[in-house]
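Researcher: Here's a chain I'd like modeled. Treat it as a single chain, no partners, no ligands.
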Amino acid sequence: MFKKFTKEDVHTRTNLKSSACKTLKAKLVTQYPLLEEHIDELIPKKTPVILLKCEDKIQLYVVDNQVLFYQQFDDLIPELRIVHKYPEAFPRVQVDRGAIKFVLSGANIMCPGLTSKGAKLPDEDWPVDKIVVVYAEGKENAMAVGKLSMSINDIKTINKDTGIELYEYLGDGLWHFKD
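Model: Modeled as a single isolated chain. Structure tokens:
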């Protein structure tokens, strides 16, 4: 989604009203319940939240010149720096070492990279379209954020095709974006 993202992709810039900020906070806490204890630190009351509308109906939410979340259609998706700051607040999966170079070049994650020896999937079944954070075997920090293309049970049983559609990854256009 952000492979070649630049400032030229931003069309409009708007300050959110305080009521819209409250709605944004509520939606974030609903979608990521573990973020609730950090929400006022993430989006302080007197700090303006800026909405950047971009190509392909993407909206970026910016606080203090840092993109916190972005949205395309419904889901609010965390930017990787926020994931690094609050790693426990987001659902996570792990890929094996062989998938690292492909993920860091922007490729979607295939099921075998999620089910092999070095990979880890949660025990419970997550539905299709759930936003997940991708970690790599042997690495401490997240390297990507994406959306499940199959449920966790389907990834484990079918074990072929795309398991996660990648949205952003370390070193992409959003990672280098400065407002």
